[in-house]
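Hi U.,

Before I forget, here's the chain from the pilot set. I'm dumping it here mostly so it's searchable later in email.
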Amino acid sequence: MDINQGEFVTIMGPSGAGKSTVMNIIGMLDEPSQGEYYFFDEPVHKMKERKKSEMHKHYLGFIFQAYHLIDELTVFENIETPLLYKGVKSAQRKSMVADVLDRFQMVAKKDLFPEQLSGGQQQLVGVARAIIGQPKLLLADEPTGNLHSEQGEEIMEIFKKLNEEGMTIVQVTHSEKCASYSDRIIRLVDGQIESDTKVNR
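Structure:
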């Protein structure tokens, strides 16, 4: 499987086909059992953990279906977390978080904790946190799985815009509608690529 910089790719397939496994390997969270993985021509399969974690911090954004927000942190602090890891200075962090809160129309919610938000709002915070550091690659595992259709469309429109701005996006989804936003759909069955097709617009 090759994914080019600037592409928006959807991975689809039945439950157990290996979609999340592929995402975890691309995201350097899991080791492949065989084969090779190159990220920007760097051999990930030969990388030390430390190097992987550096790549993670600087190049990757993750959106999980289960949100993975930190309960003890406010919306603002959750979104700010990746910037702390990257060592971004305080004033710049504040302005970057303010921009993202504005973009997601969540300024009024910035001091709330995850449990005070609806599922849809928690997912928006998850998306905001994933894109705040302007990753080169955004990995989204069922990003609209817990949202009603209007919120789902909102997220997909944000993805489309980020992709137009140059961000590479790989998403896993069961939704044909969400898949239609991408350039290419890769279908997996039992861990094998069954088809790899361009999306006709």
